[in-house]
Amino acid sequence: MKYDYHIIIIGAGSAGLVVASGAATLGARVALIEGEKMGGDCLNAGCVPSKAFLKCAHLAKDIRESQKYGLDSIINEVNLEDIMKRVKSVIEEIEPHDSRERFESLGVEVIIGRGEVLDGHTVKIGERIITSKSIVIATGSEPVIPKIKGLEDISYLTNRNIFDLKKLPKHLIILGGGPIGLELGQGFRHLGSKVTVIDMSDSLFGKDDAEVGPIMEKVFIDDGVILKLNAKIVEIKKNNENITVVIEKGGKIEEITGDNLLVSLGRKPVTQGLGLQKAKVELNERGFVVVNKKLQTSIKNIYACGDAAGPYQFTHMAGYQAGIVVRNIIFHLGSKVDYSVVPWTTYTKPEVAHVGYTEPMAKKIGVFKEAIIVPLDEIDRAKTENDRIGFLKLILGEKGKIIGATLVGEKAGETIPLATLAIKKKLKATAYLSMIFSYPTEAEIFSFASLKILKKSFKAWQNKLVKLIFLR
């Protein structure tokens, strides 16, 4: 059978764009369908705008605390409209890389509209029907909006419209203490807003190693963020120009009133309305497309990648999965995903970065042998930068090999790849002793960890032997 295209991709976010550019560059005929904006959430409402916003917010904190560095500076006024103009300018600067024009120049046919899968080879967009040998579902994710009494009656914020704010909130109430809520909540607090974070969990950073939560909770409290943990949201009420959130905490009812509400209670895959069930593409109970390790769905020539497939909702994972899909469609390599070395970073101040196994994960499957922790304030560069809050924790498995790492610090996201490479190459924790680190850098914390492991491994007779040699 002759098809219109080799590949049809539904979704022009991070995953879809990587598949499209990779396949088209290799000579495939590609159709790319997008119902909203090219670049998806990452470019327009996620990674790019949030990090541009956080740069401004964290800078505001540094200015307010400039006395620590022997300077005397103040912020007379925070103009949120100007900050958001800068955020949009960063989006505009990156936008051409994800634009329709660029992909058309690569030979991709970009179709604006909603794609509906009719069967394993056919997709409908409006009245148009096109066919291909393979189909890729890369529709991403969107904010979860739970059924909370009164929520539908008020205007609320999500990551998709918060960067349109023109006036700094007086009191921003945030539902959800996950990465988005914490990053944006701390950012608005640094700019001067009163911020309250409400979460049903009894601690923050529950997916990270146990040492992270207490440190970061203290950071947020010291910043002036009000944390309402272990709290149940009962109702949301309109209160003149304000919003009141009714919570139950410790068996007592509390009311929290602010002028803006951010709903940040997780994300769900965008898989409804695509015709997937009719086409016999299996979804799980949460709506994610079920895929095997080759990222094939229940229909073998239909693939899924990125947030729509999970299990991780990170831009870098979308790109990684997209590479697997390209290799399997174009070259039939049978490439399989490997999630043993997945890094993630929460861009708070300080940052929290992780890769591989946490200690509880390693213990659960029986691969944990020991952990080594080095406080960040032992590192000279951290002292010069006043980046003292944080630590490096290495999780070790058989034969002293690194199988996981957690790093908390101002540069954690930039530095964690040192652990990623070590895990990938199955290196021992002492491997960093053979590296020469520029002095002073915060990356030296890895060599400190190696040295700590080496000292710990020395037995009493070895210490005696070393002393004897030197005495001679």
Largest sheet data: 7 strands, mixed
CATH architecture level-2 label of the largest domain: 3-Layer(bba) Sandwich
Shape: globular
> How much β-strand is present in the residues?
15-25%
Number of helices: 14
Keywords, separated by commas or semicolons:
472 residues; Enolase-like, domain 1; FAD/NAD(P)-binding domain; five-stranded antiparallel sheet; 14 helices; 31% helix
Quickly describe the structure.
The protein is an alpha/beta fold. It has helices at residues 14-25, 40-44, 47-64, 80-94, 100-105, 179-191, 212-223, 315-330, 359-364, 380-385, 412-415, 417-424, 445-457, 460-471, and strands spanning 5-10, 30-34, 109-112, 115-119, 122-125, 128-137, 141-143, 171-175, 194-198, 226-228, 231-239, 242-249, 252-258, 260-263, 267-269, 302-304, 343-346, 351-356, 370-375, 391-396, 402-409.
